[in-house]
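#struct-help
A.M.: can someone run this one for me? Single chain, 110 residues.
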Amino acid sequence: RLPIYKEAPINIRSSSVNRFLVGLISEVAGEWVEQVVAGGESGKEARVCDYEWVLDIRQQCIDANVGFWFKQTGSYLLKEGYEYKIARQFQHSQARKAGLNYTPGLNDNS
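D.P.: on it. Structure tokens below:
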């Protein structure tokens, strides 16, 4: 689907990243993706979101000079060896509190 997305006549180009697509960031970011969105899944059947995975994606975005948005923690977040269960109403606010969002030109001190 990436080639179809690439050809779409749209102005803002962001892409949600699945943990299985992490290696593609360096190939497509900067070329035509302006922002990458990452986050955990919600619900009872959600898979664990590994915070290290989120940090890795963020660093790849910084290296490629592409925006990064940590949208939500998901229902289960693994951080520093501990798995947190996070209620749905707090998943977005907890992601914001992590302070990981990156906008090229605004916070290049990362």
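A.M.: thanks! The longest helix spans residues 51-64.
D.P.: also worth noting: The two ends are 31 Å apart (CA to CA).
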